[in-house]
Design goal:
Layout (H helix, E strand, L loop, with lengths): L26 H11 L3 H4 L1 H15 L6 E5 L15 E6 L2 H13 L5 E5 L12 E7 L8 H11 E12 L5 H14 L10 H8 L5 E5 L5 E7 L2
Parallel strand pairs: 1-2, 1-4, 2-3, 4-5
Antiparallel strand pairs: 5-7, 6-7
Helix pairs in contact: 5-7
The structure holds S-adenosylmethionine.
The site of S-adenosylmethionine has 24 residues, from helix 1 and helix 3.
Length: 228
């Protein structure tokens, strides 16, 4: 069974320990979803999510020679947005998504992006490897978002930026209820709609330097951390 709903009682507990979503998922299920989405991803999730991607690249402030890691690179939809003067490593665990990314970088002649098959929760890079570590639209689909962001922090150099672009559960109680109710279903199109931002930050023990709402409607959060 790839997913199931948790008991509502879980959500009454403390921010530092409560479940971050009503939906539990396993890597195998997510991988299967994205293997199937690979052919249509750019059409279905391309334009709608693009405004957030553009703001994220701007906020990244990439400098000459920076080493950038994109976690969950997918079809490489961000590849052409990075300045050619930095070195980008994109990782993803879906081979069909990565194949699309390879086709894209070759067809566009992008030479500063390398692609690797890897699990975001278990990065094979040494500590302090990257100046910028960026996860666009990934955190809400992984089984353990806290583990993934902690891995992102581990491989980021001290003073480097960790950037998460994602949808989180609304603070509005009515919208929030709806997002919880549909979360087991949204998983089938590649994300959990009810990820709890305060719980995520508390459990990861990470303090952002900024959180801004991006895109329209502004239901996406761009969160920036600086590794101390
Ligand atoms: C919604 S797509 C985001 C793609 C791209 N970053 C973008 O801006 O559109 C999520 C991607 O994360 C990948 N992914 C999900 N869980 C992963 C994991 N545990 N390790 C590596 N990649 C993962 C999926 O295969 C998919 O390509």
């Amino acid at each position: 069974m790839a997913l199931f709903e948790r008991e509502n009682a879980d959500f009454r507990s403390d921010v530092a320990t409560r479940a971050l979503s009503v939906t539990v998922v396993e890597n195998q299920f997510v991988e299967h979803v994205y293997d199937n989405l690979a052919k249509v991803y750019d059409l279905t999730f391309g334009p709608a999510l693009h405004p957030g991607r553009l703001v994220a690249i701007e906020r990244m402030g990439v400098r000459l020679g920076d080493q950038v890691l994109e976690v969950g690179v997918g079809t490489g939809i961000n590849a052409a947005l990075y300045p050619r003067t930095c070195q980008v490593t994109g990782i993803d665990f879906s081979a069909p998504m990565l194949e699309k990314a390879r086709e894209r970088v070759v067809s566009k002649g992008i030479e500063n992006v390398r692609l690797m098959e890897m699990d975001a929760a278990s990065l094979t890079f040494p500590d302090n490897s990257f100046d910028i570590v960026y996860a666009p639209y990934v955190i809400s689909v992984v089984p353990d978002p806290v583990k993934v962001v902690q891995e992102m922090r581990r491989v980021c150099k001290p003073g480097g930026k960790i950037i998460v672009l994602n949808h989180f559960r609304s603070a509005n109680p009515i919208v929030s209820r709806l997002e919880r109710a549909i979360s087991p279903l949204t998983l089938y199109i590649g994300f959990k709609s009810d990820l709890d931002l305060p719980g995520f930050l508390a459990q990861a023990e990470m303090k952002p330097v900024s959180i801004e709402k991006v895109s329209f409607p502004p239901i996406w959060s761009l969160i920036t951390f600086i590794k101390q």
